[in-house]
Every structure is written in C-alpha cells, then in structure tokens.
C-alpha cells in the first residue's frame, strides 16, 4: 500500500540530495533523488556504467516513533535495489518500476540517526524484465544492450520514504466496485498483520459517511452513487480502521472510484457505455532527470493531454510512478497499465542487424526463468495498482514475438495468472508488426486486440497511398479473425520540429500530420475499432543508434513539451469526440 500519513501513521519523505558513488570508496558526488543518475553528471563512466551504484544519506528516526514498526520504502530502484541500514542488508528487490520495503524496526531507534545506503543495479539480462544482454569489449569494459529503443535510465527515479505503522496494522486492501442501477456496490477485503477486528466506512467527496460495515471483508452499498467516469472523476474514500476494543489502533484511507469495465462483443464498456480511447503511448522521460518523477511535468503533461483531447494513455513500457496513477484517478484520465515486459522479441533484432535471429522462446533465450520474472512483474503491478479506477486494462507485454514457436506456451500461464489476480479487468498485449492476424499465436487468449503499426514509416516509407492499403488490409484481417475490439496502441512518424515540405517527405511536420490522417481514415472505416494511441506523446531519449537523432522524435510534443503541427490536427479530431467513436465517414474528410 502507498505510504500515507493517517491518524495512526507518520510519514517522512527522504527525497533530496544523497551522496553518490560507483564503488562505495569515494563519496564526493551528490545525486538528486528522485532522478535517474545518468544525465546528472558530465562523466561517461557514470552514464555508461553497467552494474551497481550507491546512494547514501543520514536519516534520523523521529523521536516519537518508539513502539511503532518502522518501514523504509523505495518507490523504484531501476532495475534492482538493495537497502542497507548502517552496514546491514535489510531488503533486496528485482524489478525496476515497482516499490519495495524493508521493516527496519529491529535496526534503528526512535530519535537516533542511521546511515541509509541504497544500492541500485541497472543490468538487464535474459532473465530480467525488460531483458537485455551484457557484453565485454576488447578493452574490458562491460556494455549493456537491450531490445527496446528508450534509454536505459537507472537509479532512484521515484521517492524514498520512512514511515511508522502500529504493530497491528492494515497490510492490504482490495476494492472491487459495481453498479446496480443508482446504487454502487463495493466489495472490499482487508488483510491485517495480525487477527484483529476491522471497521470500514465509505466517505463521499464532502467527507460524509455514505456506507459502513464491520469485518475484514464484505460488500458495501452506496445509494445514489456518483460513478467515476472518464473526464468526470469522482472519488470516495474507504476509511479502514483496525480496532482493539473501542480503540482505533490503525487507520488507513484508500481512495477509490465506483465504475465498471467490460468487453462486450467488439465494444469496450466503461459503466456500461461504449468508450473510444484517444491518447498516447507515453514515457517517463524528461531532460536531465531521465525517468525521475517530476510533479511539474506530471501536471503539465495532463494539461496538454486535456488540451489535445486525449482521454487516455498507456504506461508504455513499464509501470509509472504512483503519483501519476493517483493523478489520473483524480482527473478522470483512463489508463492502460503495462508491465515492463518490452523486448521479448529476438526477431526484431535479427531484422535490424542482419544477424540471423535466435528463437525468442527457448531455454537459452527467454525460458522459464524469464517467465518467472515476468509473472513477478505482473503480480507486483496488480498488487500496486488494483484499486485505481483509472486503470481499465492490463497490458502484460509490448511487442513480444507472438508468432514464434513457444509464444503460446510462454503466455498462456501469464494470462491465466493476470486473470486470477484480477478477474475484473480486460487483458491485452501490444502486437508487433511481424505478428500478423495469420501467424500470431496468442491473440485469442486476450480481450482486446492492441496493434502497433508503422505503415508509412518503417514500411512503405513516404508512400501513404500504399501504407493506407496495407494498414486497412492488416487491421481488417485481425478484426475478421477474432471478432474482438481492436485499437491502435502505437502509430507514429519521427518528426523534426521546424522541418517543412510541400511533398510527402518523412521527418517533416506535414508528413506526421498526413501520416496520422491516413491512419484515422482507416480506423474510421473499421467497425470494431475502439481507440487510437499515437506513438508518442513526446520525443524521448533513446540508446545510441543510427535510426535516431538525439532520441525518438515521434512525439506529438517535443521533449520540452512544445506542440508540433500534428498536435493541432489531433486536437481538431479528438476534442469533439469526447470518448465517443468517430462517425464512420469522418476520416474521409480529414
Ligand atoms: C515500437 C516500440 C516502441 C518504439 C517504436 C518506434 O513498441 O517502443 O519506440 O516502435 O520505433 O516498435 O518508434
């Protein structure tokens, strides 16, 4: 659960400047937390470092905390973290975008200082999510390569917290909501650290109690409920109290929204109404901070999404900071929540380098250990985000090699796991161009067809007429084979701001606009279409490569969030839609 300050819990934020070291011998550098460390220093040895780095600071435990349990929480250590109190290792965690904690009660004392050291490792291998490969150069340097284009930013990119909880406390809360005419139903389950009586209350946005119950699980009913709707968020608070007689020993407040999500035929329903996704695949990426969470960019990005008429986004290609999810909850933005399983695809690499591809799913490449790591990533994502009303679908992988031998064996248990952990939300993956409706082996396991396609960019470059034919043929094939809702989870064209031409010239602002319009014409001719997420919201940093000039330039906004010409065209299309499907012939005129 997200650490919160409540009537029974106290919370100290440990963000700021920490000592920073590559070897734990020299500590003359300081690094900002939260931030990726890579771009902070003018030192390629740090930027290109492969392995552990170390963050350190003194922390004083507040003097009133004796008798409480004391927990240290790291919101994200990318991709592996170790927490030390003085010299004692108290927690270790693999997975760069989900939080972990250490109970440090036995190692610290109220009122006293301790030395907190956090080790962070950025290595990606065949058994990490996302995967990667480490090679050693002829002169002995270790180099990291990986199968995704965005830069492998690392470090403490989110907040670090110290908090207190009473010995008997709430450990987990699950909320599942339903709508029964004008009544909202709230199934809840509370787990406590030891058996104890539990009381729950639902408070509306004015703080008025609208439902209450005793017991660690049950169903609450909210008469005349105000549902959470896209573009019209409404949140209730579930106030959970653990009791000892009449005394409240722990209290925790979980915000939630009452809404339902379902797939019916080729429709995606929110609160029983068809929803049409407009928006983006995003990244957590800004200059200097890398993937460091930044509330100023958070507010500004959501402002820009509102301005352009985006009602949704996908957390491509990893779980985002919890602040982002809470903001989406409060502002009615719909989220497709993705694990960090990007790059389970050796066919792409083969295609790009000319090296004959290895099989993607095999004991030597991505086998059981990879799948175990992937399963763990799914568990941690759902555990963290299950109560967010904004999250309407889980995306368990981006562009896996779903047409290869072994793909079905790899994915079937992961889809089952996802459904077991959360039977309420649809599940999808984003399909790569090599996976066609004819050769893909897994789409039937999922609820929504999310298709990534770059016709007119990587294929039929500069020839939008051919691209339009290819795209329509491709999408119609998927729709016909599966009879499921279909959405475009990525489409985009690299664009240099300020570059113009009167012809269909790739990289110009006109071309990005024409490319998007071509895609929209096709989407609007397909009945099963439920949405469009442009790749990408903003330009973002990538690893070195001949396909990129200072990063991926498919942003509709630049990296510093200025609109390219296409932004205005998207706004003209999306604003009037407001979550409804475009009329069938809209694309013909634009
Ligand atoms: C897709 C990937 C995305 C890339 C994009 C691109 O899903 O992460 O950034 O291509 O090449 O294959 O721009």
Automatic annotation (TrEMBL):
Ranges where the Glycoside hydrolase family 2 immunoglobulin-like beta-sandwich domain occurs: 168-259
Top EC class, one word: hydrolase
Domain of life: Bacteria
GO MF annotation terms: beta-glucuronidase activity; carbohydrate binding
Segments crossing the lipid bilayer: none
Domain Glycoside hydrolase family 2 catalytic: from-to ranges: 261-577
Database matches in Gene3D superfamilies: Galactose-binding domain-like, Glycosidases, Immunoglobulins
InterPro entries cross-referenced by the UniProt entry: Beta-gal/glucu_dom_sf, Galactose-bd-like_sf, GH, Glyco_hydro_2, Glyco_hydro_2_cat, Glyco_hydro_2_CS, Glyco_hydro_2_N, Ig-like_fold
Keyword Repeat: no
NCBIfam families: PRK10150.1
Family: Belongs to the glycosyl hydrolase 2 family.
The protein, known as: Beta-glucuronidase
Species in which this protein is naturally found: Phytohabitans rumicis
Encoding gene per record: uidA
